[in-house]
Amino acid sequence: MSRPEATGWTPRFRRRSAAARDWLEGHALTLTALATAAVLVVMLYLPVGIVFVEAVLAEGRLTLSHVADVLTDPFYVGVLADVFAEPLALRSHLSGLAGWIAAISVSASLETPVPGLDVPIPWLRVDVPAVRKGLFGFTAYQATLSTIASVALGLPAAAVLANYEFRGRQTIRSLTILPFVLPGIMVAVGFYAMFGRAGTLNALFGFVGLGPFPFIEWNPLAIVIVAHAFYNAPLVARVTVAAWESVDARAVETARGLGASPRRAFRDVVVPQLLPAILTGALLTFIFTFMTFPIVLALGGLKLATVEVWIYDRVRRLAYGEAATLAVLETLLSLALTYAYLRYESAQAGLARASSPPPREPLFPDVRTALSPRRLAIVGYGIVALVVFVGPVASLVAGSVTDGGGLTLDHYAFLLERQLEGASYQTLPWTAIQNSLLFGVATLAVAVPMGVVVSVVTTRAGRGGAVVDALAMLPLAVSGVVFGIGLLRGLVFGIPLPGGWRFQLTGAGAIVAAHAVAAYPFVTRNVSPLLSTLDPAMVESARALGASRYRALVDVELPLVASGIVAGAAFAFAISIGEFSSTVILAGGGDTYTMPVAVERYLGRRSGPAIAMGTVLLVVTAASFVVVDRVGGRFER
After folding, report:
1. Cβ proximity of 45 and 105 under 8 Å
2. CA 145, CA 126: separation in Å to the nearest integer?
3. Which of 83, 342, 369, 580 has the fewest Cβ atoms surrounding its Cβ within 10 A?
C-alpha cells in the first residue's frame, strides 16, 4: 500500500485547505456581517415585528380595531379621542386640540379614576377648561417636565466644567457617564431611601423634632422628575461641555474687538454653537423619559402610570392585543425622535474640534473672588447638585445599615436568612447575583462582536452605511418592555416551523438575547467614531503588502480602536447588570431573575431588604465596571 505522499494526495489536500482558508479569510468580514444580520433578524426584528403584527390582528384576521380602540379612548389620548373618532370634523376640534396641548403644561384640578382600580390617578385630571391629557398626554407631560429639569440642572454643570479649572474637574466630568452605568431600579430605590418615611431626609428633620413627612405620597410626580434629572442631567452636561470646548476662542475675541460686550459676545457667538448640543441633550432626555419604566414603577406604580408601565400591566393581565397596540404607538413616536437625533449626530460627525478652545480660569483663585456673586452662585449650585446626585446614592448605602432605631445589619441578615432557607422563598439574593454576573459575561460575548461588526459595516459602506446605522440603532428607539413582549410572544412561546418543528428560546437564553440587543448599540457608538477617523492609507498599505481585508481589520484597525472597544464592553456589561425592563417580563416566576428584579420584588414587600439589595447591586455594578475597564485596558495601545 503506497503512502499518501507518494500519490500526491497530501499536496492537493494542502492546496485545497490553503485555498479554502484564503477564501474564508477574504470573505470573513462579509460572512461575519451576514451572521450578525441573521442574529439581529431573529433576536431583534422578529420580536419587534411580532408586537407590530399583534397590534393589527384579531382572531387571525387583519384589522385595525385594536388601534382604533386605543385612539378613540379618552383614557389613552384624552380629548384627541374625539379627533380620531371624527377626523373629518377637524375644524370643530381645533379648540380641543389647543386645550390638549395646553394640558401638557398646565397643572390639573380634578382627578379621574382608572378602570379596574379603586383609587383615583392624580395625573388623569380635568383641567380648566375641562381637558383630559390621557395616558399618552401624561407620559409626554412628565417627559417634558423631566427634560426641563434635566436641562436646568445640566447646563450650569456644563458651564462650570467648560470654563473653570479646579481640583477634581476631570473626575467630575468622568462621572457624567452615570446615566449609562447605574441601573434605573437602583436609582429609584435610592430616591426611596432618601425621600421615604424612614429615609435620610426625614432622619435629618427628626434631629430638630420635625416629621416624618410622606414626601413620596405628597407628590410622587415631583420625586420621579428629580430622579429623571439625576439620570439625564449628566447627559445634557456631557454633550454641552463637548460643544463648549469646541467653540473657537478667537471668534469671541474678534467679537469683543469689534465692540461687543462680554454678554453680547456670549449671546451672538457662543450660544448659537451650544444650542444644537443643548437641543440634542434635551431630545435624548425626552426620548429616555418618555419610555421611562423602572423609576415610575418603583416610585409611583399604576398610580403614576406612563405608557410603558401600563404596557407592563396589560402583559401581566394577559391583554396582549392592547399591550401590543400601545407598544406600537409608543415605538413609532420614539422612532421619529430617534431618527431626528441620528440625523443631527451624522451632521455633526465631520465637525472638527476648535484649534483654539476657550481658556479655563481658576474656580477660586483667592478669597475675594470666591465671595463674588458668580462664585457664590456656583457654590449654591454645588449644594443643589450634592443633594440631587450624591444624596440618593448616599441614602441608599446609609439606609441599608440603618433603621428607625439607628445602625443595624438586620436588612442584610434578612437577605442572608432568605438565602440559607433556600427553597421556601421565590427570590434568593445569591441566585440573583450569580445570574446577573453570568448574564453579563454572556452579553459581552455576544454584544461586543455584534457592535464591532456593525461599526465596521456602517463606516465602510458609504451612503448605505447611514441606512444600516439607522436599522441597527433600533434598540435605542424600542423600549425594553416592548422588546420583552416580542421575545415572550415569539421566541419564548415558540415559533412554528415546517415539519412540525418549533423554534424556541427560553430562560437564560432569552434574557441574554435581550441584554445583548440592548447593549450592542453602545459598543457601536463607541467604536464607530474611532473607525471613521482612521487614516485609510494605513489599511491600503497593509493590503498592498498582501493582507486580506479581514487581516487588515484584525491586525491594523481594531488595535487602533481598542479603547473604544473596551469602553463599549464596559457599557455592555453595566447595561446587562442593570437591565430591568425586559428582564422582569422574561424572568417570570422562574429562577432566572437578576439583581434588579430581586430589588423590585423586595421593594413590594419590605423596603429595608430592597435597599440592602440595591446597595449590593450598586457595589457589584461599580466593581464590574472597574474590572472590565482595567482588564480591557491591558489591550489598549
Report:
1. no
2. 19
3. 369
- Say which residue the cell 427570590 belongs to: 427
Question: Shortest CA distance to 574 belongs to which of 480, 484, 439?
Answer: 439
CA distance 606 to 601: 9
**Bridge-based pairing state of the strands 361-362 and 164-165:** parallel
Q: In whole angstroms, what is the distance from residue 295 CA to residue 224 CA?
A: 7
Cell (9 digits) for 68:
382604533
594 vs 438: CA distance, rounded Å: 10
Residues linked to residue 57 through DSSP beta bridges, in sequence order: 62
Tell the burial category of 261 from Cβ atoms under 10 Å away from its Cβ (0-12, 13-18, 19+).
exposed
Is the pTM higher than 0.85? The answer reads: no
- The Cα 283–Cα 287 span in angstroms is 6
Grid cell for residue 33: 456581517
Residue 618 · residue 396 · CB < 8 Å = yes
User: Using 50, 70 and 90 to split pLDDT, how confident is the model at 92?
Assistant: low
Least confident of 42-46, 203-207, 455-459, 630-634: 630-634
Measure Cα distances from 618 to 111, 559, 578, 603, 613 in Å: 37, 32, 9, 16, 9
Gap between the Cα atoms of 83 and 71, Å rounded: 9
Q: Are strands 495-496 and 406-407 parallel, antiparallel or unpaired?
A: unpaired
C-alpha cell at 365: 483663585
461 in Cβ contact with 532 (< 8 Å): no
Which three three-digit cell numbers place residue 403? Answer: 433603621
How many other C-beta atoms are found inside a 10 Å radius of the C-beta of residue 105?
11
Q: What is the DSSP letter of 353?
A: P
**Which uninterrupted H or E stretch holds 403?**
strand 402-403
Q: How large is the average pLDDT for residues 560-565?
A: 76
Task: Return the DSSP state at 93.
Answer: G
Q: What gap in Å lies between CA 582 and CA 488, rounded to an integer?
A: 9
pLDDT, position 149: 93
Grid cell 381637558 — which residue? 131
Question: How far, in Å, CA of 318 to CA of 321, rounded?
Answer: 9
Contact between 25 and 548 (Cβ < 8 Å): yes
Phi-psi region of 167 (alpha: psi -120 to 50; beta: other; left: phi over 0): beta
Tell me, what's the pLDDT at 371?
67
Angle between helices 607-633 and 184-195 (to 10 degrees): 140
Question: Letter for the amino acid at 413?
Answer: A
164 DSSP β-pair partners:
361
CB of 299 within 8 A of CB of 265?
A: no
Cell triple for 18? 490553503
For cell 452636561, what's the residue? 237
Please state, in angstroms and rounded to a whole number, the distance separating the CA atoms of residues 269 and 252: 6
The C-alpha atoms of residue 174 and residue 294 are separated, in whole angstroms, by 25
Contact 602, 613 (CB under 8 A): yes
CA distance 100 to 80: 7
